[in-house]
Amino acid sequence: MLDVLLTEEEREIKYKVRKAIKAIPPSMLRKMDREEIQYPTEFIENMAKQSLLGIRFPADLGGSNLNWVAESAVIEEVGALGPALGCLYSLPSIVGEAIHHFGTSEQKEKYLKPILRGKLYCAEALTEPRGGSDFFGATCMAEKQGDMFLLNGQKRFVVGAEGADIFLVYAKTNPKASDPRKSISTFIMEKGLGVETKHVYGLMGSRGGGTGRLLFKDVEVPEENLIGDLNQGGEIFNQMMIPERMTSAAGAIGAARAGLQVAGKYSTRRKAFGRPIRKFQAVSFKISESLTLLDAASGLLFSASCTIDKNNGLTNGLVRRLVSESKKFATDSAWEVINHAMQILGGIGYTNVYPIERLLRDIRLLSIWTGTNEIMSLLIQHEYFNELNSIDPSFEPRDVEKDAIGAEYSDEKVYE
């Protein structure tokens, strides 16, 4: 995110995070990609020690009392480490969103504070083996029994599963509800309650984030671990679109910008036909297009961040549209930029001599998780048509349809 858009305080936290990110040893990223590290606890601990987790939460909870503009700028910086570490860094913000907006003061004290201080590791459990995008078709069940809920089912693709102490879990509590959005509840699940974690698959990229499957078999969850009201999971999920999609967008921009920097530097050093390859339009135009895509994505992210901040961090139709646009455009752009970077490096870019091949593997996931980009398109057009139908006549823009030369030929305007 361009510094000129940030306040002095926002720039300060951005550069504090940049300094912390530069200090991460390359050996840790290499070990994660080789799957020698499954969950880098020291990374989270180190960021927590510098008070760099959940920076938009209130200071009394362990945050920095900043805003979404600052958080987006920060996660762009963290994105240079790749999606695995970017996601782990974002999880306190994502899980913290539910606890902060819907949790009790006791839940904030017991869970959110330790999360932001790096004393508890967290993860969000959304996806199930039977499907991903069909969130409200979840089959994970939570049955009320006295002052407990009995949880049965599975979740998969849970980033941080192997290292997390607590999970934010969505489960069906009213399967007969006529409105699927009122059939689900949200729980804080402690691993020690009997959650079984399995690492059952390998990943093409984004390795080392502890991604795994959760198994619940008659797991007893105390009633006080219910987040919000019973069957309020749909409303909570609606709010959670903000951190899930904003962190994905910001991380994608940061990762792609890092890849572009590698390609840009390479193009000034590598010579062909007697001159640096950046002197050839085939290369320099790819740099130009990539930079434009990333600046446009970052500008959209900034606009979405400002809109969320002006809405006190809460969701509405415009916020849902903008965060979905940000996620879709940033992740699509990141994929294109990294492909450009590999093309600029040529054959050497396809090897592990440079990090471009890893970034290509990593970036591919981002248009799939936190809602596929096809789901983003569905949501964007849905909110747009809602906006069209609800424009206040006194603020309606100019009706340019009347400016056509043949506008008066009403008989030619046939709609049925």
Helix content: 40-55%
* Secondary-structure-derived class: alpha+beta
Low-confidence stretches: none
Radius of gyration: 23 Å
What is the CA-CA span between the terminal residues?
Answer: 47 Å
For the sheet with most strands, the description reads:
4 strands, mixed
Q: Count of DSSP E strands?
A: 10
Question: What does this protein structure show overall?
Answer:
By secondary structure, the protein is of the alpha+beta class. It folds into 3 domains: 3-120, Butyryl-Coa Dehydrogenase, subunit A, domain 1 (Orthogonal Bundle); 125-231, Butyryl-CoA Dehydrogenase, subunit A, domain 2 (Beta Barrel), CATH 2.40.110.10; 234-391, Up-down Bundle (Butyryl-CoA Dehydrogenase, subunit A, domain 3). Helix content is 47%, strand content 13%. The chain is built from 11 helices and 10 strands. It has helices at 8-22, 26-33, 41-49, 68-78, 83-102, 105-116, 233-269, 281-310, 317-345, 356-363, 373-388; strands at 122-125, 141-145, 148-158, 166-172, 184-190, 196-198, 212-222, 226-227, 271-272, 275-276. The strands form 3 sheets. It has a 4-stranded mixed sheet, covered by helices on one side. A 4-stranded antiparallel sheet has the order 2-3-7-6, with no helix packed on it. The chain has a two-stranded antiparallel sheet with strand order 9-10. Helix 1 (8-22) runs parallel beside helix 4, helix 5 packs antiparallel against helix 7 and helix 8 (281-310) packs antiparallel against helix 9. The model has no long low-confidence stretch (mean pLDDT 95).
